[in-house]
Amino acid sequence: MATEKWVFMVTAQTPTNIAVIKYWGKRDEVRILPVNDSISVTLDPDHLCTVTTVAVSPAFDRDRMWLNGKEISLSGSRYQNCLREIRSRAGDVEDKEKGVKIGKKDWDKLHLHIASHNNFPTAAGLASSAAGFACLVFSLAKLMNVDEDPSHLSAIARQGSGSACRSLFGGFVKWEMGSKDDGSDSVAVQLADEKHWDDLVIIIAVVSSQQKETSSTSGMRESVETSLLLQHRAKEVVPKRILQMEEAIKNRDFASFTQLTCTDSNQFHAVCLDTSPPIFYMNDTSHRIISLVEKWNRSEGTPQVAYTFDAGPNAVLIARNRKVAVQLLQGLLYYFPPKPDTDMKSYVVGDNSILKEAG
Ligand code: DP6
Q: Which of 131, 192, 142 minimizes the C-alpha distance to 165?
């Protein structure tokens, strides 16, 4: 390394992902190993995403991180595990113009500054940690010249937040739970790329942008400890559903896709109710949105919209095409008119500039 001061920086943007077959429950809390496989769809990078800049310089005296402009502690094991795993795979980096060469071993002595920004509410059940850790791992891997494919990087992002491993790929993604104790086979794989089924339009109805009362991490821990339904779901239900969902995605079979997505979301929330004490993530508005979609699908004779809810009341609605998305948005605005004093807001995600951030 040259002695003069220099800074190397990398900026990356990573979208969040929404599970259509949910991850809920860990068999290993430290390595973040799940009790079942899950499948998600990654959103367009321009909409709900995290942008992270990572910088390294001999002028930095310790690792530091800012989230949405506020400094946060990096001392937690999730951050430490990701930083350690990435550092251990760092390669040589050279900038001939600056006359700087960082050798593999130098990375242990150098410190990082990380600035991350979410363009959507943090910890409101919109998978902010998924985009956040995926972006952190990806940008650090670029900065440190880590020579690993996205599946290997996904196993590192997984140690930051389980769902983050799925954001390393676009399109439809499966997180394979794996069977090894060290978690090396608990990785994400791409099932289909973003072009495979690009008729779909995803609308996110933000019912509340308040931080949730029970985090996913503690909620799923309580479910693992107390819910018999979770055991049944993980062993008997999800393995079959994963195969059916893979088929539905492969064949672009919207009827099966909707049936599986809605039932899986409802079972996940049933597990939350089966937890002791019960966890309520959805609220009355969420339930009204479910009724609206169910009635509409029934009246059309064939499903038009799928719904799914994560650990919060916000609805993720997947319309079969743009025409349906426009009708859906009109319906949402009619039945749930946005009031200035509420948080209700819709994000439309997809190839659809007209509808972006309606409401
Ligand atoms: C309901 O990935 O946030 O969104 O691994 O503890 O960080 P940790 O949990 P997290 O859980 C996400 C749960 C979910 C379902 C899903 O995304 O599959």
A: 131
DSSP state of 235: I
Q: Does residue 159 carry a pLDDT above 70?
A: yes
Check pocket membership of 127 for ligand 1, CB cut-off 6 A. Answer: yes
ipTM of the assembly? 0.99
Residue 116 has pLDDT above 60, yes or no: yes
pLDDT band at 46 (very low <50, low <70, confident <90, very high): confident
Give SS3 for 117: strand
Q: Closest ligand 1 atom, CA of 23? A: 18
Helix, strand, coil fractions of the chain, as percent rounded to 5 = 35, 25, 40
Give the atom of ligand 1 at the shortest distance from the alpha carbon of 32: 5
- In order, the DSSP letters of 194-222 are TTTTTT-EEEEEES--SPPSS-HHHHHHH
List CB contacts of 330: < 8 A, sequence separation 6 or more.
none
Please tell me what DSSP assigns to residue 158. T
Q: What is the pLDDT of residue 213?
A: 80
DSSP symbol at 233: I
